[in-house]
Structure formats: C-alpha cells, structure tokens
Specification:
The chain is mainly α and 59 residues long. It has one helix spanning 2-54. The model has no long low-confidence stretch (mean pLDDT 78).
C-alpha cells in the first residue's frame, strides 16, 4: 500500500513538472510570435519609408 502511495506521489510530481514545462514553452512561443510580428511591422515601415526615396523620379 505504501509503495502505491509513493508511486502516485511521484507521478503527480512528474505531471506538475511537465505542466510547468508546457507553460514555459507556450510562453516562449508567445514571446517569439510577438518578436516576429514587431520585426515584420518594422520591415514594412522601413520599406514604405525608403522606397519613395530610391524610387525613380516621375517625369
């Protein structure tokens, strides 16, 4: 009986650790998504700013 309780405790500890790892992973994915979105916005803004400067002058 004592062995079963110990195994149950270990399984619960492993599950909670796994849940924490999943939370960290989803947090990392959210940070990556925010970084990629900001980088894409910066690229669009830079292109919109520099293209008129380097564009051929209209005749």
């Amino acid at each position: 009986m004592e062995v079963k309780k110990e195994a149950k405790r270990e399984a619960e500890a492993a599950r909670s650790t796994h849940a924490l790892e999943n939370l960290a992973t989803s947090d990392d994915n959210a940070n990556i998504a925010v970084a990629v979105t900001l980088r894409a916005c910066m690229c669009v803004l830079m292109i919109e700013f520099w293209c008129p400067i380097f564009a051929e002058p209209k005749k």
